[in-house]
């Protein structure tokens, strides 16, 4: 019988672990998405990663961190005004879990990419003075964009302003009001202009590197600035002087387009278009690789043409303060998830073979690096109340890279990210915390319902409390078995024996230990006792062992 029970228990445990492994496997199949080797990561150094951008930040003295769980952690930042959150390519959708949406209504299905609470955390982050940068084309960032009053088309854009020495996948986008044009195979200098805000004469609108350069130029104590001390404006350093240049020719790879969504921001944010395509650009809405444009969109002409937005800056609406002015939060949306990859950001290193083999087609010079570092400078430069911008990063300057929506090639890494997501979800979301609390409460209730009441704890000296001043002593005397248990505990403890030793002891040895005929009879015979007899037995037990 004992052998059968043992095998039954082993079988039950085996079935439990098989079921648990099957459940975990089903979760991993649904939520762990293994794809191509990691890309768009700030912590890898392939040609399609962002390691050169991150290294520039580290060299400038800016702390960098990765976020592998959820943007809900942005709510825990102590200094959001000196923090920049970078999202480069949202390659995977979020996990749909029940939670409160922005209207405090329980929502079971989640928008693309990020949950309502994660989006709310990013909106609050920008309103608190933080800087959000979103590089996206065909991924899952639509829910973020729509929360700020813009939207990604999610379809491929083609333009006549492209890099001929590469192919039509690489197009030029100039950060200016009007589009730049081509003069044969190169950008036409006559069409180049400057950034619509950063080149302003308004001190609250112009770029902070321009402002710092102007202050240095009129400071008699500064004759020149070394490259090491150029700080966040080293991209404009030239022969000891900060020469700010507000012209940006950006290189995009297979971009999409961005639309302004009317009235979607509910007056909280103002969108400003910073870069546009040429008027001859087209968008392949049905993604068939062919362009068919007509007077209307139908089955024969499913695509569209015209001028499209390539970069939009969104700033909180602040009455009385110039929108997107110095010191305010902002969100940058760029219609290309690969803008900062090493191949384009560090085109010189890529052409020299630092990220693999030397390419047969060289990447052209561009201003991706200059623009990205200028966004960082505007967001994180320290401003002294007395002297103005210092050129150096603020004390708490930090850039956070969102790695939570990148596809991983390693199942352990992706599983770790998923578990971290659940941890943040159940500790950061209001509805999740409520579900967790109710679940724990129900679990404890189930345990309590199944648990049997333990036997009353007995001490060797408990016997002395019965019969003297105990209001329940008479009910106790009516239970000779309890009196017997207390007496046997007293015998065992007085002889210094363990429970196992005492239970294994022969009856003859126990009788020798007791050495009292009346108590021996009380222990070994099961018969009813009257109240008077029980009282006599209790008195005899209390006297036992004293001599």
What can you tell me about this protein's structure?
The protein has 547 residues and is of the alpha+beta class. It has three domains: 31 residues; 406 residues, no CATH class; 82 residues, no CATH class. It has 16 helices and 22 strands. A seven-stranded mixed beta sheet has the order 1-22-2-5-19-18-15, sandwiched between helices. The chain has a three-stranded antiparallel beta sheet with strand order 7-16-17, with no helix packed on it. A hairpin with a 5-residue loop joins strand 3 and strand 4. The radius of gyration is 37 Å and the shape is elongated. It starts with a helix and ends with a helix.
Q: Order of strands across the biggest sheet?
A: 1-22-2-5-19-18-15
Q: Tell me the total number of β-strands.
A: 22
How many angstroms separate the termini? 47 Å
How would you classify the helix and strand content by structural class?
Answer: alpha+beta
Shape: elongated
Percent range of helical residues: 25-40%
Domain count: 3
Q: Can you tell me the residue ranges where pLDDT is under 50 for at least 5 consecutive residues?
A: 27-37, 105-109, 460-469
Main sheet record = 7 strands, mixed
Mean model confidence by pLDDT: 81
| Radius of gyration based on Cα positions | 37 Å
Strand content: 15-25%
Work out the helix count. 16
Tell me briefly what this model is.
The protein is α+β, with helices and mostly antiparallel strands and 547 residues long.
Give a quick set of tags describing it:
alpha+beta; 547 residues; 33% helix; 16 helices; three-stranded antiparallel sheet
């Amino acid at each position: 019988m004992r052998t059968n029970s043992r095998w039954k228990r082993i079988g039950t445990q085996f079935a439990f672990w098989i079921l648990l492994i099957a459940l975990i496997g089903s979760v991993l199949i649904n939520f762990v998405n293994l794809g191509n080797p990691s890309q768009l990561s700030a912590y890898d150094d392939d040609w399609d990663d962002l390691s050169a951008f991150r290294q520039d930040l580290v060299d400038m003295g800016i702390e960098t961190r990765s976020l592998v769980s959820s943007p809900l952690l942005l709510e825990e930042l102590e200094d959001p005004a000196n923090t920049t959150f970078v999202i480069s390519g949202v390659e995977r959708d979020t996990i749909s879990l029940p939670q409160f949406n922005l209207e405090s209504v329980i929502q079971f299905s989640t928008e693309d990419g990020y949950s309502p609470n994660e989006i709310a955390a990013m909106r609050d982050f920008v309103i608190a003075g933080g800087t959000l940068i979103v590089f996206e084309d065909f991924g899952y960032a639509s829910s973020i964009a729509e929360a700020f009053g813009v939207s990604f088309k999610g379809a491929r854009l083609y333009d006549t302003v492209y890099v001929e020495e590469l192919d039509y996948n690489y197009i030029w986008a100039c950060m200016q009001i009007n589009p730049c044009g081509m003069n044969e195979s190169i950008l036409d200098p006559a069409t180049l202009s400057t950034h619509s805000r950063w080149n302003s004469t308004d001190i609250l609108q112009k770029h902070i590197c321009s402002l710092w350069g102007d202050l240095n130029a009129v400071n008699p104590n500064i004759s020149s600035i070394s490259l090491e001390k150029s700080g966040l404006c080293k991209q404009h350093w030239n022969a000891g002087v900060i020469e700010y240049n507000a012209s940006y020719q950006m290189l995009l790879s297979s971009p999409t387009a961005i639309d302004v969504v009317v009235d979607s921001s509910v007056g909280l944010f103002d969108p400003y278009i910073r870069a546009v395509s040429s008027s001859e650009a087209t968008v392949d809405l049905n993604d068939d690789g062919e362009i068919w444009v007509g007077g209307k969109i139908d089955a024969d002409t499913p695509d569209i043409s015209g001028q499209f937005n390539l970069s939009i800056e969104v700033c909180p609406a602040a009455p009385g303060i110039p929108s997107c002015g110095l010191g305010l939060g902002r969100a940058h949306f760029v219609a290309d998830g690969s803008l900062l990859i090493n191949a384009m950001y560090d085109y010189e290193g890529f052409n020299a073979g630092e990220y693999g083999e030397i390419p047969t087609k060289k990447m052209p010079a561009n201003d991706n690096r200059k623009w990205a570092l200028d966004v960082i400078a505007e967001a994180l430069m320290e401003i002294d109340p007395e002297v103005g911008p210092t050129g150096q990063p603020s004390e708490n300057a930090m850039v956070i890279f969102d790695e939570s929506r990148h596809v991983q090639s390693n199942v352990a890494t992706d599983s770790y990210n998923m578990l971290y997501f659940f941890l943040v979800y159940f500790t950061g979301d209001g509805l999740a915390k409520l579900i967790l609390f109710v679940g724990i409460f129900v679990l404890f209730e189930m345990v309590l319902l199944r648990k049997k009441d333990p036997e009353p704890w007995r001490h060797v000296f408990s016997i002395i409390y019965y019969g003297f001043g105990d209001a329940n002593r008479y009910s106790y005397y009516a239970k000779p078995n309890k009196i017997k248990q207390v007496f046997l505990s007293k015998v065992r403890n007085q002889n210094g024996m363990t429970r196992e030793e005492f239970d294994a002891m022969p009856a003859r040895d126990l009788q020798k230990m007791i050495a009292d005929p009346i108590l021996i009879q009380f222990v070994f015979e099961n018969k009813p006792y009257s109240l008077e007899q029980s009282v006599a037995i209790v008195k005899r037990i209390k006297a036992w062992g004293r001599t």
